[in-house]
């Protein structure tokens, strides 16, 4: 039987010089700073414990872990006593057992050992300590038990708190403080009066708790436990896999009973998350078996026809015949494909291979087009590699953390917790964001500088910061002289030092007082290790690529690259954005970011695939839409992407999709794009397949199959089936063989294999002969491109200007509990925290318009109109409104425009000029959307028999 007890050394690892001591007669050598408890564990022993766990600092409250130390009086707690050279320690004796027994009997008086039926039965630490000491009942009786009548708090949808089972060890409180950094719970009272209290003595659901599960993970009993554990019972196996939500890439043990996930437990061995998780990965996996899943292939001739259920073979045959007919009629370039940043590396690689090799075109793109394509451009040009430079662990060595256009506590929560821990230890924080995001001020964290810039003025801001660095003599001259090209550096220096780039001159544009900019620039340049973390608030602009260049310029100028604690780190939105880009999903690049026009690379791929590849880059997503509307682009294969909701200017997108003659959508749900599709390939969730994801640290981690694919085929198998139907043979028995092919063709992946991933746990690319176990920190000694290259970053205002008609700027973002287009999280209890997209508006703007919180607001831009409920808040500055895009019928992207980044076409989601007025009913688009949505769901229901099928 699978055991869910974990090995736990009791206290965190220490880093000091080796110290040798004797424990129970055996010599052991451990780093100075190690506790006796951990040293005993290293020697193979196990001292009983209740309040200690290796993820938290020692607390010393339970007194179960007492030991004897030769020459010392009394019985010190082994969790709080540190090793010393020559120390002689005894962990077991009659006296120690007697003392421990007395303590445990006291605990048992408040927590009777009625273990049968308890969710923690067989993995409860109190139960196991009591059993070891032979404690079965308490001589103190149970009358003093003050928690026995306390009601259970089951308000949180995912876990419950049963005070009757609480032993007041405080592990949950410390986990919330130390690991998560939310400080949502406390212990009130003393002795038997001690009790765990959430926020202001509220229910967990009403409290500040963000449902990360760290308290549940740390609880030694079932006082805090996952609800499914009580319902489904003990799991029978655990499979290590990787979260399919954000780009942090947390590692989990999926604990499974039969084909059902009992719980997802964050892996302590996971190098991206170190045992922590957030509400999405930890709890919101129920979408994978939601009744809306479509599990049979479907086809239809017209998008107004009912869907027809078919076999996989029929679906492949129909799709292939349509693609070939269209190519024969309109030409080879009239078709294309979109790879998914939610699918595995292997699946993205296969889709682009199918498009290039089987369809003979480079018309392939990926959803990274609409998020981080400027990162690829900016970092490749300056540093030579299109990826973040550090590990997440690196932040522990940062002295100054500069967050630009990212909201880590919502978008990358597990990394945010790491960052906050470092900030609590004393690192300084600069936040550049139009909104007062949580990091600006949260428990025990306060930004030293918040630069509340106007949306669209990033480049002006980075230039003014650079101006201070250059004109105040803060350039790291030695680093630049040794590591960077002198000519471009001089040009950049001359450019940024011009008076027009000074903070004073730029303040009118950015809206940020010059003194703040000067202070932040000095802090970043002089404060020690400076690390920049940025997100879509940098990239999703008409000057997104310019801003990435500007960030890299700043990091090079201050010498903040090429070692731990520094770097330039794009926080990736979706789980495999990095990977889908690495895999050659862009129309101009083959795997490993090698240009399609390069003959040697093209021939290498062409020979391996048995085809001649086109040397010209294909169409990008926006160009595909344009071509569909002008009639030259007719068929598209979309894997795991919902452009009808996620891409800007929805009406333009849906018009383009409607113009296609064959749209294949491969997804787990009938998403918004599928409502315009002719062929539906039912997708597989991350629980149903093998593969790999690559996170924001370039870390490749295994995704392992936990259950059989509900539709019979994993996504990669469906792509293989489609390729074969097109007459192009693909012969892979397992995704590991796809990875082997990637490794053979891609210099940065040469050393990657499933065998090595299983052995090492995860690998950060580049992984090759030069770095056989991967590359945690990039650009050590020299940049990937050789010398770093500076670029002049002239600020060019966006064309999206506020006017009397559109006086406000709309900017967009995410919330913690929902994810991207919401297709997954909307189908979980996460919607209890956020059930609709809302419009944040500053009190002054709201008052001018007579708007109060909860009222309907019509938001109109040059592209369209939608209606959202208002939330009046000072989180946004006057003149700026903000919304999210998690719900299809809120139509946030009906209002965003087609303005895009000059270099990469990444849409300018973050800047849309709008007007907001009080209204009484949904917009015209919303009414049309709801009608059409109902029609499409009805057409699907006819085929699937599902009552919802949405
Ligand atoms: S779930 Fe997370 S945020 Fe909530 S109380 Fe537990 S540790 Fe704190
Ligand atoms: S809920 Fe669990 S972790 Fe928290 S004090 Fe009680 S027993 Fe300890
Ligand atoms: S932080 Fe990201 S990867 Fe980690 S559990 Fe949350 S959603 Fe998943
Ligand atoms: S485990 Fe050491 S005092 Fe509780």
How far apart are the termini? 39 Å
Contiguous low-pLDDT stretches (5 residues minimum) are none
Named once each, the bound ligands are: iron/sulfur cluster, FE2/S2 (inorganic) cluster
> What is the makeup of the main sheet?
7 strands, mixed
The computed structural class is alpha/beta
Q: What does the overall shape look like? A: globular
Radius of gyration: 29 Å
Strand order of the largest sheet: 13-12-27-26-25-14-15
Helix content class = 25-40%
Multimeric state: single chain
By DSSP, the count of extended strands is 36
Give the overall average pLDDT.
94
Structure annotation, total helices: 30
Residues in β-strands, percent: 15-25%
Give the key terms.
single chain, 950 residues, alpha/beta, 7-stranded mixed beta sheet, 6-stranded mixed barrel, 16% strand, binds iron/sulfur cluster, binds FE2/S2 (inorganic) cluster
Write the topology of this structure.
Layout lengths: L17 E6 L2 E6 L4 H7 L25 E2 L18 E3 L3 H17 L14 H9 L25 E3 L9 H10 L4 E4 L6 E4 L15 H5 L5 E3 H6 L4 E6 L8 E7 L2 E7 L12 H5 L14 E2 L8 E2 L2 H19 L4 E5 L5 H14 L5 E3 L6 H10 L17 E5 L3 H4 L1 H12 L3 E5 L8 E2 L2 E2 L2 E3 L6 H14 L5 H7 L2 H11 L6 H8 L3 H13 L3 E5 L1 H4 L4 H14 L10 E3 L6 H6 L6 E2 L3 E2 L3 H11 L11 H10 L4 E5 L3 H4 L3 H9 L3 E6 L11 E4 L8 E4 L4 E5 L11 H11 L9 H11 L8 H7 L1 E3 L43 E6 L24 E4 L1 H7 L6 E5 L4 E8 L7 E5 L7 H4 L16 E7 L5 H21 L6
Parallel strand pairs: 1-4, 14-15, 14-25, 16-17, 16-21, 17-20, 21-22, 25-26, 26-27, 31-35, 32-34
Antiparallel strand pairs: 1-2, 3-4, 5-8, 6-7, 9-10, 10-11, 12-13, 12-27, 18-19, 23-24, 28-29, 29-30, 31-36, 32-35, 33-34, 33-36
The structure holds iron/sulfur cluster (3 copies) and FE2/S2 (inorganic) cluster.
């Amino acid at each position: 039987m699978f055991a869910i007890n974990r090995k736990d050394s009791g206290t965190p690892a220490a880093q000091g010089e080796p110290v040798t001591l004797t424990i129970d007669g055996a010599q052991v050598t451990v780093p100075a700073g190690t506790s006796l408890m951990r040293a005993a564990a290293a020697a193979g022993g196990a001292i009983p414990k209740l309040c200690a766990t290796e993820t938290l600092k020692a607390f010393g409250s339970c007194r179960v872990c007492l030991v004897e130390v030769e020459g010392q009086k009394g019985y010190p707690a082994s969790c709080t006593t540190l090793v010393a050279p020559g120390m002689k320690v005894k962990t077991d004796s009659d006296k120690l057992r007697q003392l421990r027994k007395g303590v445990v009997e006291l605990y048992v008086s408040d927590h009777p050992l009625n273990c049968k039926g308890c969710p923690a039965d067989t993995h409860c630490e109190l139960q196991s300590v009591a059993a070891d000491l032979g404690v079965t009942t308490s001589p103190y009786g149970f009358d003093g038990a003050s928690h026995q009548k306390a009601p259970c708090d089951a308000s949180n949808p995912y876990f419950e708190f049963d005070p009757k089972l609480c032993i007041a060890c405080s592990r949950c409180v410390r986990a919330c403080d130390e690991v998560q950094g939310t400080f949502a719970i406390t212990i009130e009272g003393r002795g038997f009066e001690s009790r765990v209290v959430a926020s202001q003595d509220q229910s967990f659901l009403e409290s500040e708790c963000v449902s990360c599960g760290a308290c549940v993970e740390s609880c030694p009993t079932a006082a805090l436990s996952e609800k499914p554990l009580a319902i489904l019972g003990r799991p029978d196996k655990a499979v290590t896999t990787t979260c399919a939500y954000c780009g942090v890439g947390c590692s989990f043990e999926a604990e499974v009973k039969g084909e059902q996930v009992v719980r997802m437990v964050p892996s302590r061995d996971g190098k991206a998350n170190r045992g922590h998780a957030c509400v999405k990965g930890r709890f919101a996996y129920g979408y994978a078996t939601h009744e809306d899943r479509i599990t049979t292939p479907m086809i239809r001739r017209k998008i107004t026809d009912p869907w027809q259920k078919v076999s996989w073979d029929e679906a492949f045959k129909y799709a292939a015949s349509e693609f070939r007919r269209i190519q024969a009629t309109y030409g080879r370039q009239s078709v294309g494909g979109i790879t998914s940043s939610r699918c595995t590396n292997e699946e993205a690689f296969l889709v682009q291979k199918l498009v290039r090799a089987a369809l003979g075109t480079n018309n392939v793109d990926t959803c990274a087009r609409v998020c981080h394509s400027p990162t690829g451009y900016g970092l490749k040009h300056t540093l030579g590699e299109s990826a973040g430079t550090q590990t997440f662990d690196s932040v522990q060595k940062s002295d100054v953390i500069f967050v630009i256009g990212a909201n880590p506590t919502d978008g990358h929560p597990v990394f945010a917790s790491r960052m906050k821990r470092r900030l609590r230890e004393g690192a300084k924080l600069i936040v550049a964001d139009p909104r007062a995001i949580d990091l600006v001020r949260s428990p025990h964290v306060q930004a030293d500088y918040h630069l509340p810039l106007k949306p669209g003025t990033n480049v002006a801001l980075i230039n003014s910061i650079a101006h201070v660095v250059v004109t105040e003599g803060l350039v790291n001259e030695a680093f630049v002289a040794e590591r960077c090209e002198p000519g471009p550096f001089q040009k950049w220096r001359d450019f940024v030092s011009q008076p027009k780039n000074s903070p004073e001159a730029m303040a009118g544009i950015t809206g940020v007082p010059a003194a703040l900019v000067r202070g932040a620039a000095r802090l970043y340049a002089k404060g020690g290790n400076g690390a920049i973390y940025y997100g879509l608030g940098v990239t999703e602009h008409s000057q997104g690529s310019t801003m990435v260049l500007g960030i890299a310029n700043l990091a090079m100028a201050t010498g903040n690259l090429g070692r731990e604690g520094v770097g330039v780190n794009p926080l990736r939105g979706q789980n495999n954005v990095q990977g889908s880009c690495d895999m050659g999903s862009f129309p101009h690049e083959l795997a490993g970011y090698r240009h399609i026009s390069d003959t040697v690379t093209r021939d290498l791929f062409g020979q391996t695939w048995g085809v001649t590849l086109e040397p010209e880059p294909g169409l990008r997503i926006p160009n595909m839409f344009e071509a569909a509307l002008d009639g030259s682009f007719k068929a598209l294969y979309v894997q795991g992407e919902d452009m009808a909701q996620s891409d800007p200017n929805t009406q333009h997108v849906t018009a383009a999709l409607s113009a296609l003659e064959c749209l294949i959508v491969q997804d787990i749900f009938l998403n918004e794009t599928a409502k315009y599709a002719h062929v539906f390939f039912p997708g597989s969730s991350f629980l149903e397949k093998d593969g790999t994801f690559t996170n924001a640290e370039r870390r490749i981690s295994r995704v392992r199959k936990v259950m059989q694919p509900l539709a019979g085929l994993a996504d990669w198998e469906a792509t293989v089936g489609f390729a074969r139907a097109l007459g192009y043979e693909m012969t892979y028995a397992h995704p590991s063989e796809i990875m082997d092919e990637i490794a053979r063709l891609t210099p940065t992946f040469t050393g990657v294999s499933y065998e090595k991933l299983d052995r090492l746990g995860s690998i950060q690319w580049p992984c090759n002969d030069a770095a056989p176990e991967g590359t945690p920190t990039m650009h050590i000694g020299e940049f990937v491109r050789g010398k770093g290259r500076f670029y002049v970053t002239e600020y060019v205002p966006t064309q999206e200007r506020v006017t009397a008609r559109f006086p406000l700027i709309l900017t967009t973002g995410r919330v913690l509990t929902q994810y991207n287009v919401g297709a997954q999280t909307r189908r979980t209890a996460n919607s209890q925290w956020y059930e609709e997209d809302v419009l944040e508006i500053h009190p002054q703007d709201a008052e001018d318009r007579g708007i109060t919180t909860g009222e309907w607001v019509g938001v109109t831009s040059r592209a369209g109109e939608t209606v959202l409920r208002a939330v009046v808040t000072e989180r946004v500055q006057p003149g700026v409104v903000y919304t999210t895009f998690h719900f299809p019928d809120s139509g946030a992207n009906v209002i965003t425009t087609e303005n895009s980044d000059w270099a990469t076409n990444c849409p300018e989601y973050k800047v849309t000029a709008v007007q907001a007025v009080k209204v009484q009913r949904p917009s015209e688009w919303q009414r049309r959307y709801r009608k059409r949505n109902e029609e499409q769901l009805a057409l699907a229901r006819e085929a699937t028999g599902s009552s919802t099928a949405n």
